[in-house]
Amino acid sequence: MTELNTIQEFLETLASKAPVPGGGGASALAGAIGAALGGMVTNLTIGKKRYADVEEEMTDWREQLESLRREFVRLAKADEEVFAPLAACYSLPYGTEEEKKTKDRLMEENLLAASLVPISIMEKSMEALEILEELCEKGSRMAVSDVGVGVQLIRAALLGAVMNVYINTKSMKDRKKADELNTYADQMVEKGSCLADAIYHKVRQGLKA
Amino acid sequence: MTELNTIQEFLETLASKAPVPGGGGASALAGAIGAALGGMVTNLTIGKKRYADVEEEMTDWREQLESLRREFVRLAKADEEVFAPLAACYSLPYGTEEEKKTKDRLMEENLLAASLVPISIMEKSMEALEILEELCEKGSRMAVSDVGVGVQLIRAALLGAVMNVYINTKSMKDRKKADELNTYADQMVEKGSCLADAIYHKVRQGLKA
Description:
2 copies of one chain form a homodimer.
Chain A: H1 7-15, H2 23-45, H3 55-89, H4 97-138, H5 144-169, H6 175-208
GO molecular function, one term (chains A, B): catalytic activity
Domain Cyclodeaminase/cyclohydrolase (chains A, B): 6-186
Protein name (chains A, B): Cyclodeaminase/cyclohydrolase family protein
């Protein structure tokens, strides 16, 4: 996926059996949509007299959300780039000792690279959630429902990306490294989904009141 | 949003203070991405000897998911189309009895139309979840993580769209109709998030085992 793909192209290639984009790219795009919704909330707050006292913070969050959005798009592309060398690895010969050693080493390197991209998507999702928590408190009341939608998209990015951590760490021979990555990812899932649910609950209560 | 927008255009307009797209369009796009991921799972299953016994069902689900994807894109567009007349309503005069009557009637009609689009997004999300539940059981094991990501995207579509039901029903004068829509939406949220969480949990356990 690149920013210049049309939505139709992206959806059609995603739905096809083409190797990329897959769940990793979809998770990153969910993150980008969530960050864009956060950005919209800052833009609907900045310049309004009623919110003048939070204007400076709001401007910082807008910048951070723009940078996160770009990062998510970059990570969608990175997720495609780490896939090809990993897929190519599977067809390497595995006969002689030398071949075995080479294939094992390359597999391990590529599995690690393919795990680190979704880990980054998760880290960016955690950053985005923390900003959305602030926007839920301090953003324009007119846009509070968009904070709620944004939180759901970022939650999907986080819980989508962890799937791609698991499928890659699962095949790693270095079990210590694999467990370390899984534990780190699980901690983000736990903390992040709690935070997302709390923000969403607050928005929903406010809207229904 | 149309299918022919580039991802960059969509994200930039979403992040801006332009009135559309907003949370409704973002929810619908999340649904389209989720349906596309489901479609990918069917395409990775169809034609494989190991899954020959589910080929017919798989082909049906592929068609249904394609149709859902198109519906979600159509609903993203519909969500923009119902916004303009609603926004225009707010600036109608409200002086004479006649003006009050006209404005009240138009507001009510437009609020209802703006509630029914996210209700449709939710209904389509429920349909998509039921297919993803089947894919979790019967789809290719190679693509099970993509079922997990798809479920998160559809869950985001469902829980994102309900925000736009609430903001519109909130201003409706016909409280009976408003409560009816809210209750229907709440039932979908409850049933859909339980189902999504159950499917996701199953996928996650399978991947970590």
